[in-house]
Design a protein that fits this description.
Layout (H helix, E strand, L loop, with lengths): L4 E2 L20 H22 L12 H27 L4 H4 L22 H19 L3 H25 L14 E2 L6 E2 L3 H10 L9 E2 L6 H20 L8 H17 L11 E3 L16 E2 H30 L1
Parallel strand pairs: 1-2
Antiparallel strand pairs: 3-4, 5-6
EC number: 2.5.1.145
Membrane topology: Multi-pass membrane protein
Subcellular location: Cell membrane
Length: 326
């Protein structure tokens, strides 16, 4: 029985590597298209159930398409801007902001829009929803609930795209489902801690070169399953039992924040960012040495959780106040 899984050598970021023109088509972009299609299909199912209808108004196909195109546009802008201006530490995009949406490297090679931030996409989608609802005079919270019912299902494919890209992998692990990603950091096998790790993982290093690529948590798949499928199933089951408008949006915001916060302990932070809060100086990012070492993603998730709880509290207090006055 293998003690780890080797990342398939035939998997590349490009779907058709080495083939002119077709080589520009990437798995990550394809997964975005699939994600939007799945979310759109589920949204239409909600509309068919009458989720957004009122006695005075019935949602049209034009409304659905207009809402989705607006939200997707804002989502992509937010995800890209956040990725380049918050997560990129080179300063390149601050000095040359026109490169944020330029799909080529400085030497002219096609790269696509490499780098998207979930939290930036979340903010962008939220702003897009508010913008569309205000412009169309639709109830913001009700439409936010509808969007929250379908976003996790689409999000699943975004994380699958990360796995197919061989990026955003996790920390090293001794678990038998650990994956050896081709572009992960390698370590000298002369290190004492690596010898201990190899013994626990059952790895034979006798034939290995000096630098060893170790198995890691497939954190992209953890996120696809828990932040995607599981969270979607919970919210979809609650769609006819929401307590008030905005309740499902709050469930999604808190649920994603909580699950992502935990999974971040298995996912390796960006090397150039490291930890934002650190209990011990120079804590290695490839190992989880303390629960007090928090990444950028975890801090943003804490903000999401706090904001959702505050929103629910305000809604409950507001609702109870209206009932008393009534």
């Amino acid at each position: 029985m293998p003690l780890s899984i080797t990342y398939p050598s035939w998997l590349h970021p490009e779907i058709f590597p080495g083939i002119p023109v077709l080589g520009l088509i990437r798995w990550y972009g394809l997964m975005y298209i699939v994600a939007f299609f799945v979310a759109y299909t589920l949204f239409k199912r909600l509309v068919k159930e009458g989720f957004l209808d009122t006695q005075e108004y019935k949602v049209s196909e034009e409304d659905i398409f207009s809402f989705f195109t607006t939200v997707i546009l804002f989502l992509l802008i937010g995800a890209r801007v956040f990725s380049t201006l918050v997560y990129d530490t080179s300063g390149l995009y601050w000095s040359k902001p026109w490169l944020i949406f330029w799909p080529f490297s400085e030497n002219g090679n096609f790269t696509g829009l490499a780098g998207m931030s979930y939290h930036g996409g979340f903010i962008g989608a939220l702003l897009g929803s508010v913008f569309w609802c205000v412009r169309k005079k639709k109830p913001v919270l009700r439409w936010a609930d509808a969007a929250s019912c379908v976003i996790p299902a689409g999000y699943t494919f975004g994380r699958l795209g990360n796995f197919l890209n061989g990026e955003l992998y996790g920390r090293i692990t001794t678990m038998p489902w650990g994956v050896v990603f081709p572009h992960a950091q390698r370590f000298s096998k002369s290190l004492d801690w690596l010898q201990d790790f190899a013994q626990k993982a059952g790895l034979d290093l006798t034939a290995a070169s000096n630098l060893v690529n170790l198995p890691r948590h497939p954190s992209q798949l953890y996120e696809a399953f828990f932040e995607g499928l599981i969270l979607w199933a919970v919210i979809w089951a609650l769609r006819k039992k929401k307590l008030f408008d905005g309740f499902l949006a709050a469930v999604y915001t808190f649920g994603y924040g909580a699950v992502r916060f935990v999974i971040e302990y298995f996912r390796e932070p960006d090397a150039d960012l490291g930890y934002r809060i650190m209990k011990e100086s120079n804590a290695p990012i490839y190992l989880n040495t303390s629960l007090m070492n928090l990444s950028t993603g975890q801090i943003l998730c804490l903000i999401m959780m706090a904001a959702s709880l505050l929103f629910v509290a305000v809604r409950i207090i507001g609702t109870s106040g209206k009932q008393k006055s009534g």
